[in-house]
Amino acid sequence: MLEANHDHNTERQARLARVVFRNDLTPAEALEAVCDREGEVDIVTEVSPADAKRVQSSENARLVTIDANRVLVGIFNQWPERDVPLSDRRAREALSLAVDRERLCSEVMDGYATPLASLTPSWCNGCFPGAQPRGRDTERARALLADAGWPRGRSLSLAAPASLAGVARAIAEDIRGIGLDVDVIEVADEGLIAGARTLIEKKLVPPWDVLVHAWFDLSSDLPPAVVHREFFGSDGAFRAGPPIPEFDRLFRDLVSCIDSDEARRRAEEIDRWCYEEAAVLSLCAPQALYAVNRNVEFKAYRTTFELADTEVSADHWSRRGTARERAGKAVAAPAG
Prior knowledge:
The chain is α/β, with parallel strands linked by helices. The chain contains ten helices and 13 strands.
């Protein structure tokens, strides 16, 4: 529970007297509370695209969306112990060319996502000039896969957490279209911690070829610091393979730069390197979706969930009737 600090030493004051965070609700319970009733939940975070229509049809809630600093990608397992040539750029590019990103965004994400060219969304600093998502090209994908020497009869092992299983199935369907069989591994919630430990500690080789993975950035300034470094850096949690000297060199050049314009150029260079190397299976940048009580003015941010600019109207349940003279109160609940 957060209480407003009315003695804050700036002109910008809290617009809500109290904010109560409820973390004791399931996603379904939180959505029901904001859509069907009042006085329990005012904002539900992390609404899934599948639930967007329910919010839009509600009399009590409205849907708030924003192009957020989030990415959905596939991590290539490049450890040499695997018997597939994913350390070969041609194999990675072949898989990238197999995926129909427009269909993924429109059908699987219900339109609440933007196709991704590399690892930096187009609205962030550091997205390299002229960046365009790869289009689907099945003929070139087949040729590149053959040139890379993919073992005959060897299927691709594609893993994803249960929450992203639909995305994995759509990708698998696309990849089968270039003549490569795909085994989809849905990782149950109870197996996520062990799987994350294997990826992060790098003591064992993960048992998959590609892992569908979601990540986020905390700012829009220099994405490589929080995003690219985690996927490719010598200390990156999500690097699935040996260290990458070229990336480490590019990243050292970035972190030693003190001029903001030059730093942006070097961030763009890193993002271009990621694209040219097909270093990840770039998929899309999902939007952040919120279900918000119709009497709450909520401003969404690209980075994190913030309430600094949120306020409630005189018709809000906390201010109606005998409570009209009370200051507003907002109740927020996560949907996942």
